[in-house]
Amino acid sequence: MKNILFFGDSLTAGYGLSQSQAYPALVQKMLEENGYTNYKVVNAGLSGDTTASGVYRLDKWLHLDVSIFVLVLGANDGLRGIPTRETTINLQEMLDKAKRTWPDVKIILSGMEIPDIVPGRYAAEFRMLFRELAIKNNVHFVPFLLEGVAGMRHLNLPDGVHPNAEGQKLLAKHTWAVLKDIL
Question: What is the CATH number of the domain that holds 75?
Answer without folding.
Answer: 3.40.50.1110
